[in-house]
């Protein structure tokens, strides 16, 4: 999700900041929410454990900051808890020299991934050994944080590990399944079979399954789109990339610096990668996605994460 350059007709007039209709499923095709499980797809016992996780109802059964060691292990197996199990490598703090096998293990890369990292300069070869100079690096192949460490972080937002004081929805799903299975109550809603929704009839289900989004028309014009939502235009349509770059230099916050500097950066983006995420966080810190994708280096760096 982020920014991308689209080629659309010169007379394309879809409103800026409005999601393209072709990306939105018509309301009459959407299924009905299952009233038995309230759209969760879980049986009653699993759903009760889920509702207690954050305890928004204030029942006193909150457990998002009282997880157990087996639940911590489940998160680590799924590649979660990166703040505990990894550190950010940087040119100032690279890894020690590693064998090729260890370099792949420490970065979680396969053969192709390691080659890509070397092409980007994230990993450099020194003789027969490798050094990781940018990206996430395992602290220890055997390191698993304790439940006490993880729970304390989620209670107090320990800045050494995380800027956030709560598990996200992916962690919550993993923890829910782990706890419910241990308690022997894991299961799906008997009415909707775990889907969380119901169709009116077979024809409704077929129409839902066969619906596909449609892209806007293509043409000779240049336009910036955001992909944080389903997708919407963020600029007028221009006949040439120079026109779009001038408009973005004057109106967009994705690049900072002088007008001339922003113009050069946008030209490089339009003619080069043409796509960028909203935010890039690596060994050099946090940067706007467009900023990170081009060689342009303005006087100051602006981060616009929420678009």
Helix and strand arrangement:
Blueprint: E1 2-8, E2 32-33, H1 44-54, H2 69-77, H3 82-85, E3 86-89, H4 100-107, H5 111-120, E4 123-126, E5 129-132, E6 135-138, H6 147-156, H7 169-183, E7 197-198, H8 202-210, E8 221-226, E9 232-233, H9 241-251, H10 259-271, E10 275-277, E11 279-282, E12 285-288, H11 289-293
Antiparallel strand pairs: 1-8, 1-10, 2-7, 3-6, 4-5, 8-9, 11-12
Helix pairs in contact: 1-7, 2-7, 9-10
Short description:
The chain is α+β, with helices and mostly antiparallel strands and 307 residues long. It has eleven helices and twelve strands. The protein has helices at 44-54, 69-77, 82-85, 100-107, 111-120, 147-156, 169-183, 202-210, 241-251, 259-271, 289-293, and strands at residues 2-8, 32-33, 86-89, 123-126, 129-132, 135-138, 197-198, 221-226, 232-233, 275-277, 279-282, 285-288.
What does the model show?
The chain has 307 residues and is α+β, with helices and mostly antiparallel strands. Helices cover 34% and strands 15% of the residues. The protein has eleven helices and twelve strands. It has helices at 44-54, 69-77, 82-85, 100-107, 111-120, 147-156, 169-183, 202-210, 241-251, 259-271, 289-293; strands at 2-8, 32-33, 86-89, 123-126, 129-132, 135-138, 197-198, 221-226, 232-233, 275-277, 279-282, 285-288. α2 crosses α7 (169-183) and α9 (241-251) crosses α10. The longest helix has 15 residues, at 169-183. The termini are close together.
The number of E-state strands comes to 12
Helix content estimate = 25-40%
Order of SSEs: EEHHHEHHEEEHHEHEEHHEEEH
Percent strand = 5-15%
């Amino acid at each position: 999700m982020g920014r991308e350059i689209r080629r659309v007709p010169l007379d394309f007039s879809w409103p800026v900041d409005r999601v393209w209709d072709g990306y939105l499923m018509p309301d009459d095709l959407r299924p009905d929410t299952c009233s038995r499980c309230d759209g969760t797809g879980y049986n009653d016992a699993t759903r009760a454990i889920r509702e207690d996780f954050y305890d928004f109802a204030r029942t006193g059964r909150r457990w998002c900051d009282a997880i157990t060691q087996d639940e911590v292990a489940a998160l680590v197996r799924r590649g979660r808890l990166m703040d505990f199990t990894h550190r950010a490598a940087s040119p100032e703090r690279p890894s020690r020299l590693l064998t090729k096998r260890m370099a792949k293990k420490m970065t979680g890369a396969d053969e192709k991934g390691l080659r890509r990292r070397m092409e980007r300069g994230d990993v450099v070869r020194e003789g027969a050994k490798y050094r990781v100079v940018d990206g996430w690096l395992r602290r220890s192949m055997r390191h698993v944080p304790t439940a006490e460490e993880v729970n304390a972080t989620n209670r107090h937002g320990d800045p050494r590990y995380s800027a956030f004081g709560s598990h996200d929805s992916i962690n919550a799903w993993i923890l829910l399944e782990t706890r419910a299975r241990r308690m022997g109550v894991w299961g799906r809603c008997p009415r909707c079979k775990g889907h969380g929704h119901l169709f009116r009839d077979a024809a409704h289900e077929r129409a839902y399954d066969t619906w596909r989004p449609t892209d806007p028309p293509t043409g000779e014009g240049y336009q910036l789109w955001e992909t944080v939502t389903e997708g919407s235009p963020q600029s007028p349509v221009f006949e040439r990339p120079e026109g779009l770059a001038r408009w973005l230099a004057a109106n967009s916050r994705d690049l900072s610096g002088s007008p001339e500097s922003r113009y050069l950066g946008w030209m490089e983006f339009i003619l080069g990668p043409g796509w960028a995420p909203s935010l890039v966080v690596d060994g050099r810190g946090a940067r706007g996605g467009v900023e990170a994708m081009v060689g342009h280096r303005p006087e100051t760096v602006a981060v616009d994460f929420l678009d």
